[in-house]
């Protein structure tokens, strides 16, 4: 019986907590505990992925005759089945389970494996796909999306260009819009070379008085700017912004079977929908991206930090239409984001089905993920005025009064960042005070925190509470920083946090756990208690002997620091 309770962990913490558990029985107990407790879908998926990992690592083929099903957990049976290749052996196992423990979960695994093996033995078995619209397949059901049939079942459509939604706040173009334009420019330049074509970067500006940004977005990489101005669009609203963007995206469709609501010819484009589309992963950008992609009947990869375009070979029969056959898909946007585990990345693909195409391939981008490009004032571009009528019903909500919120703290651009995580839990206020003291020894430094501090139930005294709010959060859903020196105290190193600080020139980590994930990407790792280490570093800086403080860390020398004073970090680089 395991003492591990998954309910004690947030999703981002659960991955690192179970990564070293290699007992399948214990993992199965943890999975059942999650089912009985909070029953969180991401947590269940994470634990199951950890269980499945053993099937990838187990190269020894299983002997079906020697498998003692009664003594094996469901996860152990699932792992063993992956190396059973004979249908007759699998059918024998199914009979034995039915005559013995008769567990539904085990029988489902065996039947699934039988179907998989049979499918792999059949060459070019065409999958029958019912491509009728939902209204025809299920006439007895109510279909609230009936009015969206104009965007459904598009097959053989024409797609071009990468669209970038350029968000403005308080009348100014936000930095992430510029970052996306620069990345889009790089992607499409490479794309055009690889595929010998001339597809463009299309910037979208929606709002009040946004025309003033046209020259800027062209300078940052846009070939075309589609602009919609209206005094009613001064502040972001879901309905009008979604309708306007979608009308822009599909207005020029010419596909013969593609009915466009209020369709019109647009001489600057000759395609049904954009091939790719990028949104900022801001509060408004996240809302708009989901609404637009749903309306355009496509998918969305949210909170991405990496993008590239290449071919991808897929064997999934749902995508290929033929069991046992592989198919190469061209021009696939690979959208990289941290996964639920907190210590791995996932790459999301938006792949067409045999009778249905999913475009635009869409992603929202974490601010700070890409370099801010240098504007080129000599660039020229086409400006398109969007003038389709706006429905008054879209503006049912009006803002009568508002308060201008404090913009918060901008952690980017500082030479030094001192960040603290859950390791300050023994004395939260003192932990923040020590971080402030250390940051105060540098001319240009600030204090940041992890999401665990922002969302945790720590009690802080009033004089430090301002340093624990969301505006100082570093990571996937916070700010992305790249200082000359990043001090991470009491931070485990989940990927969500790594995204926000991995580009720092030098990373110094302080942690009592020698196996903390952050050690893998730190230049210096100090094994010690931050409540002892941070004051020593502060004192050393005051006295001008920082190197001595790094060597005196409360218990162990920094990782890779030789006796002669030179330091070689975990990545094999000398500092």
Q: How would you describe the overall organization of this protein?
A:
This protein has helices at 11-18, 24-36, 41-57, 74-81, 87-99, 104-121, 134-137, 175-195, 214-219, 238-250, 283-295, 317-320, 428-439, 451-455, 462-465, 495-501, 530-543, 546-551, and strands at residues 125-126, 159-165, 168-169, 172-173, 201-207, 224-229, 273-280, 300-304, 306-314, 322-323, 327-338, 345-348, 361-365, 382-385, 416-420, 445-449, 485-489, 506-511, 524-527. It has 575 residues and is an alpha/beta fold. It has four domains: 6-57, no CATH class; 64-119, no CATH class; 159-255 and 265-394, HUPs (Rossmann fold, 3-Layer(aba) Sandwich), CATH 3.40.50.620; 416-543, 3-Layer(aba) Sandwich (Rossmann fold), CATH 3.40.50. It has a seven-stranded parallel sheet with strand order 8-13-7-2-5-6-14, sandwiched between helices. A five-stranded parallel sheet has the order 16-15-17-18-19. Helix 3 packs across helix 4 (74-81). The radius of gyration is 28 Å and the shape is globular.
Described by strand count, sense and barrel closure, the largest sheet is:
7 strands, parallel
Give me the secondary-structure category. Answer: alpha/beta
Oligomer: single chain
Mean pLDDT across all amino acids: 82
Counted by DSSP, the helix tally is 18
Distance separating the two termini: 47 Å
- What overall form do the CA principal axes indicate? globular
User: What is the helical fraction, as a range of percent?
Assistant: 25-40%
What's the number of domains? 4
Give unreliable regions as ranges.
55-59, 149-153, 254-262, 548-575
**Top CATH class of the largest domain:** Alpha Beta
Beta-strand level of the residues, as a percent range? 15-25%
């Amino acid at each position: 019986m395991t003492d591990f309770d998954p309910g004690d962990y947030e999703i981002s913490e659960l991955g690192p907590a179970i990564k070293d558990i290699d007992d399948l029985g214990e993992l199965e107990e943890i999975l059942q505990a999650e089912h009985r407790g909070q029953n969180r879908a991401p947590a269940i998926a994470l634990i199951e992925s950890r269980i499945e990992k053993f099937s990838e690592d187990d190269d020894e083929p299983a002997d079906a005759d020697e498998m003692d099903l009664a003594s094996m957990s469901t996860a152990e049976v699932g792992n063993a089945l992956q190396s059973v290749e004979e249908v007759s052996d699998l059918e024998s196992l199914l009979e034995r389970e039915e005559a013995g423990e008769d567990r539904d979960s085990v029988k489902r695994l065996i039947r699934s494996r039988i179907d998989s093996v049979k499918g792999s033995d059949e060459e070019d078995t065409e999958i029958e796909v019912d491509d009728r619209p939902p209204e025809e397949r299920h006439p007895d059901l109510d279909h609230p999306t009936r009015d969206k049939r104009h965007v459904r079942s598009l097959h053989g459509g024409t797609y071009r260009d990468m669209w970038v939604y350029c968000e403005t706040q308080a009348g100014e173009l936000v930095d992430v819009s510029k970052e996306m334009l620069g990345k889009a420019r790089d992607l499409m330049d490479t794309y055009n070379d690889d595929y010998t074509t001339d597809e463009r970067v299309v910037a979208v500006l929606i709002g009040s008085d946004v025309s003033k940004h046209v020259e800027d977005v062209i300078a940052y990489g846009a070939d075309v700017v589609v602009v919609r101005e209206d005094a009613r669009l001064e502040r972001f609203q879901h309905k009008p912004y979604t309708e306007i963007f979608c009308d822009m995206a599909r207005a020029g469709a010419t596909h013969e079977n593609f009915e466009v609501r209020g369709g019109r010819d647009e001489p600057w484009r000759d395609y049904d929908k954009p091939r790719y589309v990028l949104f900022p992963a801001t509060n408004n950008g996240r809302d708009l991206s989901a609404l637009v992609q749903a309306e355009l009947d496509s998918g969305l990869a949210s909170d991405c930090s990496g993008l590239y375009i290449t071919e991808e070979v897929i064997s999934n029969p749902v995508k290929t239409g033929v069991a046992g056959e592989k198919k190469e898909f061209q021009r696939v946007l690979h959208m990289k984001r941290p996964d639920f585990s907190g210590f791995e990345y996932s790459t999301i693909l938006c792949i067409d089905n045999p009778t249905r195409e999913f475009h635009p391939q869409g992603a929202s981008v974490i601010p700070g993920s890409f370099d801010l490009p240098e504007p080129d004032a000599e660039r020229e571009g086409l400006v398109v005025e969007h003038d389709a009528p706006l429905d008054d019903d879209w503006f049912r909500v009006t803002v009568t009064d508002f308060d201008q919120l404090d913009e918060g703290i901008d952690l980017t651009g500082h030479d030094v960042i001192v960040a603290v995580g859950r390791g300050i839990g023994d004395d939260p206020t003192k932990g923040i005070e020590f971080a402030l003291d250390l940051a105060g020894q540098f001319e240009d430094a600030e204090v940041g925190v992890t999401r665990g501090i922002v969302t945790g139930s720590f009690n802080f005294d009033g004089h430090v509470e301002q340093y624990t709010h969301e505006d100082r959060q570093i990571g996937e859903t916070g700010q992305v920083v790249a200082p000359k020196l990043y001090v991470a105290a009491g931070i485990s190193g989940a990927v969500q946090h790594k995204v926000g600080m991995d580009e720092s020139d030098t990373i110094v980590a302080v942690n009592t756990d020698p196996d903390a994930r952050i050690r893998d990407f730190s230049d210096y790792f100090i094994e010690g208690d931050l409540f002892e280490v941070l004051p020593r570093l502060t004192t050393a800086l005051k006295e001008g002997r920082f190197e001595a403080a790094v060597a005196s860390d409360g218990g162990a020398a920094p990782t890779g620091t030789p006796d002669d004073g030179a330091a070689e970090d975990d990545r094999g680089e000398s500092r």
